[in-house]
Amino acid sequence: MSRNRVLTGSRAMVEAIAQEMRVDPTVFVMGEDVGPYGGIFSSTTGLLDEFGEERVRDTPISETAFIGAGVGAAMAGMRPIVELMFVDFFGVCMDAIYNLAAKNTYFSGGNSKVPMVLMTATGGGYSDAGQHSQTLHATFAHLPGMKVVAPSNAYDAKGLMTSAIRDDAPVLYMFHKGLQGLAWMAAPEGASTEVPEDPYAIPFGEARVVREGGDVTIVAISMTVHHALAAAEALAKDGVDAEVIDLRSLVPLDREAVLASVRKTGRLVVADEDYRSFGLTAEIIASVAETDPGLLKSAPRRVACPDIPIPYSRPMERFALPDAEKIRAAVQQTLNRAVA
Amino acid sequence: MEPSKDQLLWMYAAMAKARHYEDTMARAYMEGKTPKFDIGAGLVPGEMHLAAGQEPCAAGVCVHLRAGDTVTATHRPHHVAIAKGVDLNRMTAEIYGRRDGLAGGRGGHMHLFDPAVNFACSGIIGESAGPATGAALAARLQGSDAVAVAYLGDGAANQGAFHEALNLASLWRLPVVFVIEDNAWGISVPKSRSTAVPDNSVRARGYDMPGVHVADNDTLAVFDAAGEAVARARRGEGPTLIEVQTYRYYGHFQGDPEVYRPKDEVARLKARDPIDRLRGHMLDNAGVTEAEADEALTRVRAEVDAAFEFARQSGEPAPEDALEHVFA
């Protein structure tokens, strides 16, 4: 009988990895500081003790080599889970990701597969500045051949990780630092959730309605789900009943869930911590517009990081990153109301 | 190469200044973050990587440099910035995220830029190597005898950018010096578990350039090796790789639980403190008096204290200032 406990995002991730490692000897973990340290954002805590150094491998600071090696190991029958410590660091190793991992299946006509999980920390909010605070969802989702997931809570963190490990495609598992439940970084209340002990998988491409409402649809992912929920609570006091959708994965993208909600509400706000232009927010709005622009009763709005590097100083970083108040204001605009 | 008395005093002052800076920053950083460490709380924002113990790498190299020479540093940049002469008031204000900072608070502690002394740094491992190579190329193209110095940690020697830059610099015989600060740790991973060779200076051989290893955080040996390398670069004879075995007294970042580190390591390292050793050498062998050394110490401590006061007095930037300076 499966028991539920409240877990942090990081503990939920680690539990999924450990459970898969116990039953599948091809699963192993490598990355920087994943061994004794347990991952800078606690994504591998305790794995070294249980599985040893052969299967939980600290790497040199050589992302091109070890992500490339992950691709090769995956093609040779393993299921590597490779950590890119900060997503911002993709700059030194993108070729292994988007030209190898993402394309080898296609280039082999489906005869080769790359069942690799690349897990990576995203997000700002703690003044780590522009090389350590980006979200970059769209950078990866834009490039064909990779599945891209971004959990907003511990329950999803476990179920999406289990699916990622079992998937035969390369999966980019983008976890927000601020949702990990780290002792040294504040997390929103809803990030830690009840998590069943038994293994379970959450299918990719299934968005979740986290709050039902009839007046406006707020589409969010990862950290912005929490901002959206807080905004919805504030809006409820103004008599606005907002529906909040957590996409959970960017690739595949559950456009149907968005359309179903917008059919009901007729109003749309999309929130993403990634940069504003050419991103997830535009993709969602385009999906609605090209399906049936008549669904929208007012112009859709997006809440995202303006097109600037993420600033270091707190007032400027707060200005740049999405929050509940910015989402609330955007919703008010879709309702053609003056913002208080 | 023997340092003159003036050079000894300059290095001593630069090292003492950097040490006092880091120790002061360590305290300032924890204000508002105790008893429970929360990276988002307190006076000083963001991550904090301190370089106490690594001062010989900064002073022993930068003593040979001029304002027109370029230095690119790492995510642990303060000691090098101080030795290169970066405006200390504005650097400190930047680290405090204040309006009067070098970048008005946009960059912070890992992104310090002072074009007045050709100093820059990056938070990405290994990304000092390419830009220093490019600064050296610019000097060549501009007919100047300026040189460039790239600082890297020992972990960065396993990055592609490092190897590619070494090859390019050697191929074009560019006036650049690569200085690896080997503090034995890449966050939690010891060098012995990340690097196939115990001494990265041997890697110079693969790129047909001199490679020099400096043991035991020895300021005088850094001075000697860097003096030769900088002179060689200025003469147009090409790049040099120097690896300095140095010490890191603090954790990788402030708040690092350091579970990976032997408990007695820092005490052992502090017993061989490079600033104390340099002072001993100056007094015993170079005719420096106690009064001269103390005067230098008093002066640099006052400069550091004034810089922190400047930062504290500087106002917060306006939120919408974030939109400025994306493009030139």
UniProtKB/TrEMBL annotation, chain B:
Its EC number is 1.1.1.-. GO terms for molecular function: pyruvate dehydrogenase (acetyl-transferring) activity. Its cofactor is thiamine diphosphate. Signal peptide: none annotated. GO terms for biological process: pyruvate decarboxylation to acetyl-CoA. Keywords: Oxidoreductase, Thiamine pyrophosphate. InterPro entries: DH_E1 (IPR001017), PDH_E1_Alpha_Subunit (IPR050642), THDP-binding (IPR029061). It comes from wastewater metagenome. The lineage of its organism: unclassified sequences, metagenomes, ecological metagenomes. Residues 46-320 form the Dehydrogenase E1 component domain. This is Acetoin:2,6-dichlorophenolindophenol oxidoreductase subunit alpha. CDD domains: TPP_E1_PDC_ADC_BCADC. Pfam families: E1_dh (PF00676).
